[in-house]
Structures are given as structure tokens and as C-alpha cells.
Automatic annotation (TrEMBL):
Organism: Shewanella loihica (strain ATCC BAA-1088 / PV-4)
First-tier enzyme category under EC: transferase
CDD domains according to UniProt: DPCK
Keywords: ATP-binding, Coenzyme A biosynthesis, Cytoplasm, Kinase, Nucleotide-binding, Transferase
GO biological process terms on file: coenzyme A biosynthetic process
Record's protein name: Dephospho-CoA kinase
Length: 201
């Protein structure tokens, strides 16, 4: 891929989306795996048809869209179900993300992926940026934001690469314990760095 791509990741509740949106405000095209993963299972897609066929009608809402909560329930306690779903979705998501990255028109593009390292998607990018906070803060922010219990958040954290593993693989790290103005400064500095790197590729 000729486009210079930064892979942005971080655990649940770390503030990935906030950081991505700050890059977006600087005019950078974002390709968000969470958005793409919704697009490939939207109503009428091949992805949704196969999921409903495999898991049954309980994973569909009355309007025919995917019932994410019901699907999440089924896969979090069943590794084989999760594996089946991943095998279906990963190729669909990967293809769509690559298409969107190729169509990006900004100086560089950002690929936002919660499981960047876990799914080997760091191979698709030129450098990686990890948004980092402590697990305690992850649990606090996620329980407040999503109104879920702490144990569910702990399970999600446990299913992701460890904090140390992410940090050891990261080219750049944003510590997101501070306030939004500190975050904006860090993003602006990295933005200038990535523009220079993109110009060299």
C-alpha cells in the first residue's frame, strides 16, 4: 500500500475514539475497524445473513438488524463460537478497511483497531500508536460509559493483549490520564511527525 498508515490502538475505555477524532479534526482520514465491523454486518449484508443462520434468530432485533448484546453474550463464554465469528468477519473487515485506506486522500491515514496486535493487523500499517491508561482507569471509564459491571469489563480486558505487550510493540504511546488539552498537544505533535514520515515514504 502506497498510503502512509498509522495503526491506532488501545484497550477498552482508553480513549482511542477521542484520540482518533482529534486526528480527524486535523483533517486526517480515519478508517475505524469498529465502524467497518458494523458495516459488514449491517442489515442485508452477507455477514449478517451468515451470523443469523449460525446462531439463530435470537441474535436479530425485531427490525432485522443485529442484536449486538445477544451476540456478545453468546461468544464471550464460548471460545468456539467466538472463533467461528472471527473467521467469518475478519476477512470481510480486512478487505473493507484496505479499500477505505486506499481511498483516503489526507497526507496519511489512521487505522483505528481495538485488536490491532491481536489480529495481526499491525502488518497493514507503517507505524503503531497505542493510547495507554491503567487497567483500573479502563474499568472505571468503561463501567461509567457503558453502564456495564466491572467483571464484564475485566473479561474484555483479559481477552485483549496485555498492556505490557501493547506498549512493547508500539512505535508511539499517548498517555491518556490527563485532560483534553494535554491530549490535543500530544496529538498535534504526532500529527507533525506523521506528516514528515509520510512525505519520506
Amino acid at each position: 500500500m502506497s498510503k502512509f498508515v498509522v495503526g491506532l490502538t488501545g484497550g477498552i475505555g482508553s480513549g482511542k475514539t477521542t484520540v482518533a477524532n482529534l486526528f480527524g479534526e486535523l483533517g486526517i482520514d480515519l478508517v475505524d475497524a469498529d465502524v467497518v465491523s458494523r458495516e459488514v454486518v449491517a442489515k442485508g449484508t452477507k455477514g449478517l445473513t451468515e451470523i443469523a443462520h449460525h446462531f439463530g434468530p435470537s441474535v436479530l432485533l425485531e427490525n432485522g438488524e443485529l442484536n449486538r448484546a445477544a451476540l456478545r453474550e453468546k461468544i464471550f463464554n464460548d471460545p468456539s463460537a467466538r472463533e467461528w465469528l472471527n473467521n467469518l468477519l475478519h476477512p470481510l473487515i480486512r478487505t473493507e478497511m484496505l479499500t477505505q485506506l486506499q481511498n483516503a486522500t489526507s497526507a496519511y491515514a489512521i487505522l483505528v483497531v481495538p485488536l490491532l496486535f491481536e489480529n495481526g493487523l499491525d502488518r497493514l500499517v507503517n507505524c503503531t500508536l497505542v493510547v495507554d491508561i491503567s487497567p483500573e482507569l479502563q474499568i472505571k471509564r468503561t463501567t461509567e460509559r457503558d453502564a456495564v459491571d466491572a467483571q464484564q469489563v475485566k473479561n474484555i480486558i483479559a481477552s485483549q493483549a496485555s498492556r505490557d505487550e501493547k506498549l512493547s510493540k508500539a512505535d508511539d504511546v499517548i498517555d491518556n490520564r490527563g485532560d483534553i488539552s494535554a491530549l490535543k498537544e500530544k496529538v498535534a505533535a504526532l500529527h507533525n511527525k506523521y506528516i514528515k514520515l509520510a512525505a519520506q515514504t
